[in-house]
Amino acid sequence: MDAQLKRGVLDVCVLAAIKNEDSYGYKIIKDLSPIVELSESTLYTILKRLETASMLVVRSTEFEGRLRKYYHITPRGLQRILDFKNEWKEIMDIYSFIGKED
Amino acid sequence: MDAQLKRGVLDVCVLAAIKNEDSYGYKIIKDLSPIVELSESTLYTILKRLETASMLVVRSTEFEGRLRKYYHITPRGLQRILDFKNEWKEIMDIYSFIGKED
DNA sequence: TATTGATACCTCGGATTACGATGTATAGCG
DNA sequence: CGCTATACATCGTAATCCGAGGTATCAATA
Lengths: 102, 102
Known about the structure:
2 copies of one chain form a homodimer.
Chain A: H1 3-6, H2 10-17, E1 23-24, H3 25-32, H4 40-52, E2 56-63, E3 66-73, H5 75-99
Antiparallel strand pairs in A: 1-3, 2-3
Chain B binds a DNA duplex through helix 1, helix 4 and strand 3.
């Protein structure tokens, strides 16, 4: 999928991936891979961004000798998902415009 | 609408705006404004980009003393629209993922 | 034992691109 | 004469996706 098309949806995808259950970087990529491919460098950039924006909080733990950071969504993060869904109507209008008269 | 969300769709919107009839910069903005807002600086950047990519060709004319450049879509531009429509399925999958379990 | 692959984190630089600010120029209206 | 609409263009800034590279642990394989 085109990189430009991903912008604006990747943030929300990551939030959706942790919405129902706390998750960590590596697992988020695996969970999202059937829907959207994203590189590790992209994901960790996004996670940092979302943390700065208070849309999620981080909890570091140790798991079998390895560091693991769990990400938990905040009310602000949940609101971001709702906002996106409201914007969806506009996206659909764009699609209708592009597809009309064929 | 969020600027990031526009990336990847604006190009196709502009192509769709000239698909059925040749048009020029100022008119394209007016035609698109109900669906997507875009500034002049953005549009002319896009038009240049699409021209470089051979998705449209330009024809300069004089209209009532003012310069007017008409843009005409090419087969490659039409193909770009088709490619976008094929990518749409992936966008819908993303939306389903974000919206599931509410 | 050594090597590979999976897991798990991170940083840096390059490329793309939307947009505000700014500039140029003509036509028409009050 | 000033203002608005029309019509084009450039420049710099900010955002952000990704490849390339780095560190480290553990399990399986050769």
